[in-house]
Amino acid sequence: MTRMTFARAINAGLRKSLENDPKVILMGEDIGALGGVFRITDGLQKDFGTHRVVDTPLAESAILGTAVGLAYRGYRPVVEIQFDGFIYPAFDQIVSQVAKLHYRTQGAVRMPITIRVPFGGGIGSPEHHSESPEAYFTHTSGLRVVSVSNPQDAYTVIQQAISCDDPVLYFEPKRRYHDKGEVDEGVDPAAALPMGQARVLTQGTDVTLVAYGPLVKTALDAAAAAADEGISLEVIDLRSLAPVDYDTVVASVRRTGRLVVTHEAGQSGGLGAEVAASITERCFNHLEAAPVRITGFDIPYPYSKLEMHHLPGLDRILDGVDRALGRPNSLSGLEG
Amino acid sequence: MTRMTFARAINAGLRKSLENDPKVILMGEDIGALGGVFRITDGLQKDFGTHRVVDTPLAESAILGTAVGLAYRGYRPVVEIQFDGFIYPAFDQIVSQVAKLHYRTQGAVRMPITIRVPFGGGIGSPEHHSESPEAYFTHTSGLRVVSVSNPQDAYTVIQQAISCDDPVLYFEPKRRYHDKGEVDEGVDPAAALPMGQARVLTQGTDVTLVAYGPLVKTALDAAAAAADEGISLEVIDLRSLAPVDYDTVVASVRRTGRLVVTHEAGQSGGLGAEVAASITERCFNHLEAAPVRITGFDIPYPYSKLEMHHLPGLDRILDGVDRALGRPNSLSGLEG
Amino acid sequence: MSTDETGQGAAAAPEMAETSPAVAHRLIQLITPAGERVSHPEFDFWVKDVSDEQLCSLFEDMTVIRRIDVEATALQRQGELALWPPLLGQEAAQIGSGRSLRQDDFVFSSYRENGVAYCRGVDLTDLVRVWRGNASSGWNPYAINMATPQIIIGAQTLHATGYAMGIQYDGADAVSVAYFGDGATSEGDVNEAMVFAASFQVPVVFFCTNNHWAISEPVRLQSHIQLADRAAGFGIPSLRVDGNDVLAVMAVTRLALDRARRGGGPTFIEAVSYRMGPHTTADDPTRYRDANELEDWAAKDPISRVAALLERKGLLTADFQQHVRDQADAVAHRMRKGCTTMPDPEPMDVFRHVYSTPNSWLDRQQEHYARYLASFGEPAGAATQEGAR
Amino acid sequence: MSTDETGQGAAAAPEMAETSPAVAHRLIQLITPAGERVSHPEFDFWVKDVSDEQLCSLFEDMTVIRRIDVEATALQRQGELALWPPLLGQEAAQIGSGRSLRQDDFVFSSYRENGVAYCRGVDLTDLVRVWRGNASSGWNPYAINMATPQIIIGAQTLHATGYAMGIQYDGADAVSVAYFGDGATSEGDVNEAMVFAASFQVPVVFFCTNNHWAISEPVRLQSHIQLADRAAGFGIPSLRVDGNDVLAVMAVTRLALDRARRGGGPTFIEAVSYRMGPHTTADDPTRYRDANELEDWAAKDPISRVAALLERKGLLTADFQQHVRDQADAVAHRMRKGCTTMPDPEPMDVFRHVYSTPNSWLDRQQEHYARYLASFGEPAGAATQEGAR
Ligand SMILES: Cc1ncc(C[n+]2csc(CCOP(=O)(O)OP(=O)(O)O)c2C)c(N)n1
Ligand SMILES: Cc1ncc(C[n+]2csc(CCOP(=O)(O)OP(=O)(O)O)c2C)c(N)n1
Ligand SMILES: [Mg+2]
Ligand SMILES: [Mg+2]
Fold it and tell me: Model's pTM, two decimal places?
């Protein structure tokens, strides 16, 4: 066990994948000598060379498009998108090629491409540096989408993503990069909890609280605060956003009868809508209240002096918990 | 009143807008001499000239990006995307520029851009020609999204979209282009039902059936078939997909207690999830059953010999109605 | 801080020698439209091994793919195919280049390169699978080292470039070839592909067929200078070839392939040709183009000029012509048969191959749909025509 | 149908004269690094009206914006700004071009063109608004005819092109100017912008500041030939200018503007300069670049060479120098004051201006959030620091 930052854990996982499989190639802007703007690839080009860790010209569509060609040739490209807001120029290649080629070719061509995306806000950055675009990808068939919340999972899941034969978007909660945790580098990714499965972080009886990525920490804080008030929250870290491991969530909601789901992305059409709709379908007779979504607003990501209003915090989540429990809350007395 | 096709009605609406406002400019691939691959702009370049109806080079990002520049200069560009699957190269300009510039500039710069997208399947085309990408845009704050289902609305709403100061995606159900209907060309778009509002097409008491675009016709057929079995469906044509006119849907579901929502797009993270989640939030105590989604599968659009399996048809919708009503249906006896 | 308003007396401005427009390329030609073999100081070299026999075989291939085109168009008219994108007029560009490739080279093409697929050895039935609506890929790309033809304009140029990066990493001497049209040159992807190819000096050939039209848009809307000039600005050498001259196309392609194999990096080829037919069977070119243009180009037909050359050489015997006709008919027949006897897919195929790993979302939908089909009282596999109910 | 395996004896292949790489541009220079005014047959014409007084004023502007840069960097270090993208070393490129524009021209720039904004008459407080986190746009674009600086690399080149289409439709003689970096030239958008600009021959100037770096990536990764060469392939004339020479930059910009005004279409300018500082205050260039490189470029500093020229002309008096220093200090002071006294936004501002028409989704969220804030017992407007609770 080693104590390391979230960022370092990804770095260690990438290193392991580079070591274990000569077909793994890292590609992206500034990932070489600089080690990426977040230093996630620090030292890797030095150790593996410029053919394994490739600084690319500044063109996101080309990064993904050439990754497709490399996958055609049997490689496993691991692409870094510098910030969430810079993934859109590559959207066509991701949606029309990466996601669809396996289906298109009746399984003949595999696209084992991992797309690393530092995402989410809370770091005081200007526009385009704090977005949460995950719902665009969870709605795109052919892709798998994951997001992890702690260094150990970061380390393990990046390796699972890279060895997965399907394309995976790996969303990294950038405001947690400097959080530290224990990481067992001896973990065998194949034996660990599969990346498609959610994890129950705290067992609880009153409300199921579903979170992923950066808000898992917030959710755990909320659970601690709620416990002080005698409310028992079951916090679930989704980990896999597409597909969502509904079995785990369903089992929880059947016990608690109440669901709160939280994310930074805007509410309308966000992943919370999908979770709420699917859980309602599967647990209708167990639900004591409508699932509650505590999310970012339906706005472009705001300038940083306002971002803490947009981002769900502890108190907004607890207000949602109160709503789920039918306790007094900010919307008490409002109809529809 | 004139009887005309859906396609012709859009053409007439575009012509009206070109006549009424010299700042309106049509742009797109093959929209000039050819009149577009669907002939929606037939005759317009001949009558308004090459500066009002602009054949552009083959580059979607540029089409949207130059539309942004034209909007900066005070124009109202109306962009044609040739087929749904070709909108993705423009995704960055739509999401990061068109949708956000008004917010970014604190309201100083308006983006009255209309993006026309023939969408949906059922026409026997190869890949990329039958997609339903609306959920990517309904989840994008700063955009408005509409889809219409009949020639009169097509005629009126295209004009409302063009005169709207916000950017609007106007999704045209291409498999209905040849459907005919009565169109009153004298309608004043400003006095007609606003484009943000849904329309109740058939009043019913048992189940609220929500559809939009191409499936409105299917929904009406389903309502007729259900009526034969003594089941009364209230069919709502959403018309506006972002924002959804929830007031209209809520009023209906409060009466019926049951909701079925249908679309061609894949289920997970589709607009149906958003509608189901929001209606559950607002109508929880009125709901007799979980909202039911009858949608396309979570697959890339399949080749045409299989598309009728993917597309929700009359019988799949009725099966969903049975589920909402707790009547025997294909999933009877299944748990969760 | 001030703003310049002088508005320089522009009439008096000196000529601007600094801004040199790109130098026009000479069109490389080895066979004139009249079928005369003209010698070329540089490019004769690249086809010096082409024997009379090979010339005959090139003629045969071009004739066969034209016949395929005719047959496929007929199949479309008869309702057996939903759509077909004819290559009429572009036979030399496709056969000349396609025949120059090695088996371990890899092709990334658009929807129109059926002639190239023929050179790669495609199964004839596979040629029409997509257009009948029976598949999204006609063939397994690895079976003939040719990717599924691309519909998203220009996207495949990046795939070709990435594939070439892989060749380079492997230390192999194969070449990746991207085929695309004149219209495609406007797409960001094609330009980004040139950036990457030049930057990494990878073994890729950009083969641009300038058939003068992108559906209804003439090439001058995409560029008012020659397309071959585009590449120089990326540091990529380019060649402009008479795309209706099968020998010249072969020569430039071989040169480009050879350079790539020897580590010389990418080459851009503009093959100047003409789309003699509609964009697809769904298109009506009379709405946007002049019949005269078609006539002009008919005079430069790629097949007639080889026929004329063979004639001059005394090779166009009645026997040979009959052989070619028979061959074309046989191919057309096989394709038609393959097309019309193709089995329909099974309903549940709709769920296959989305993922190569299990997926709980989709598995559930599949299970539900199977139950749904079964609720009509038929086993799922037998319900082919029932899904739409 | 067969596959070519001959593998031509490539060693014997003749040289390929057809593939001409683009011709290297001569670097246009009017003031040497040593401050000598050198005459130029074509470009002297474009600056013949620049008086000693104007030269002094150019020097002043460059000095002021360098001072702005220093002040903003200090503000960042002191925690008053979150980030700052310095333009150190690029003063001549920005002032020389910015001062050439007419008021009714319109600028679309990246985040780095603060010197251009200064020429446009930006309010000093507005320069730092975005970097303090108080706004996503520092200013109202129509107030100074300069768009909100673009963060998405290259996207603004399309906006500039579209704006120029509008100028053309209006029959006006204004010009739209796109500023972007060397890294941006790899983005599809920039290349598509050139396609559209050339196709429609609209009045746009593409002003590319080649500062040799895109964060940690050297310009040779984007292109191994000169960036000015890129434009020729689109049929756009280009100029390569010493970007550290304010007069030369002015000359080429004026020429390009004049051509555009007279209907001559787009021009591409590569201003060769150097990013003397970090990419932004968050960057650490020692990780990826050699200190020697910096030294080389320090010798070509854009301000010192104008100072040397003024010295030669006897214009660099102590009085003048003091005046410039005072002016720079005053500007820096005003900017600092504007920065530190800027009022914080109100919480509910987060919902403003998303739409210009009412929106039921957002209105509801706004109403709910107001209730939420009120539930803490404070009126919504007073809860600025409370949102994160
Ligand atoms: C991204 C994208 N935009 C638009 C289309 C629609 N489309 C199909 S073919 C075509 C014209 C292509 O012209 P060109 O590149 O010259 O190839 P050609 O058809 O002439 O072989 C267009 C616009 C598409 N398939 N993909
Ligand atoms: C689409 C996109 N990709 C990546 C980035 C991250 N990024 C910001 S600045 C920059 C380098 C830009 O270099 P250049 O164009 O040379 O401009 P310079 O910063 O040198 O002025 C990068 C990669 C971005 N802002 N937008
Ligand atoms: Mg073409
Ligand atoms: Mg730069």
Answer: 0.97
pLDDT tens per residue, range B307-324: 999 999 999 999 999 999
Q: Is the Cβ–Cβ distance between C303 and C90 less than 8 Å?
A: no
Residues C47 and C101 in one domain: yes
Q: What is the domain range of residue C309?
A: 4-340
Pair D205, D294 in one domain: yes
Paired residues of B144 in beta bridges: B168
Same domain? For D233 and D323 the reply is yes
Q: Residue B319: what pLDDT? A: 98
From first to last of its 336 residues, chain A has per-residue pLDDT tens of 999 999 999 999 999 999 999 999 999 999 999 999 999 999 999 999 999 999 999 999 999 999 999 999 999 999 999 999 999 999 999 999 999 999 999 999 999 999 999 999 999 999 999 999 999 999 999 999 999 999 999 999 999 999 999 999 999 999 999 999 999 999 999 999 999 999 999 999 999 999 999 999 999 999 999 999 999 999 999 999 999 999 999 999 999 999 999 999 999 999 999 999 999 999 999 999 999 999 999 999 999 999 999 999 999 999 999 999 999 999 998 875
| Residue D59 structure tokens | 């020097």
> Does any ligand 1 atom lie closer than 6 A to the CB of residue B29?
yes
The complex's ipTM? Answer: 0.97
pLDDT attached to residue C25: 78
- Per the residue annotation, which of B51, B128, B129, B178 is the catalytic one? B129
Window C:134-173, CB contacts with A under 8 Å = 135-137, 140-142, 147-148, 152, 155, 157-170
Residue A307 Cβ inside 6 Å of ligand 2? The answer reads no
Active-site option among C240, C275, C305, C336: C275
Residue-wise pLDDT for A206-256, tens only, equals 999 999 999 999 999 999 999 999 999 999 999 999 999 999 999 999 999
Planar angle of CA B279, B283, B287, nearest 5 degrees: 100
Q: Based on the structure, what is the number of domains in chain C?
A: 2
Which residues in chain A are closer than 8 Å to C192, comparing Cβ atoms? 57, 59, 61-62, 65
Q: Based on the domain organization, do C282 and C375 belong to the same domain?
A: no
Q: Chain D window 177-196: which residues touch C at a Cβ cutoff of 8 Å?
A: 185-189, 191-192, 195
Angle between helices C124-132 and C318-340 (to 10 degrees): 50
Q: How far is the CA of B55 from the centre of ligand 2 (A)?
A: 31
CA distance D8 to D58: 61
Instruction: Give yes or no: residues C325 and C354 share one domain.
Output: no
Q: For residue C1, name the pLDDT band (cuts at 50, 70, 90).
A: very low
Q: In chain C, which residue's Cα lies nearest the Cα of B336?
A: C364
The mean per-residue pLDDT over the stretch D48-55 comes to 97
D126 touches chain C (CB under 8 A): no
Whether C212 is in the pocket of ligand 1, judged by its Cβ within 6 Å, is no
Closest CA to A255 of A225, A227, A232: A232
Query: Does the active-site annotation cover A263?
Result: no
Residue A209 in contact with residue A321, Cβ under 8 Å? yes
Q: Does C380 share its domain with C299?
A: no
Distance of CA C83 to the CA centre of its chain: 17
Clarify whether residues D136 and D283 are in a common domain: yes
Give the end of a domain, one of C325, C340, C355: C340
Which A residues 99-158 touch B at CB under 8 Å? 99-100, 103-104, 127-128, 135-136, 138-139, 141-142
CATH number for the domain harbouring residue D183: 3.40.50.970
DSSP element (H, E) containing A240: strand A240-242
C290 and C367 housed in the same domain? no
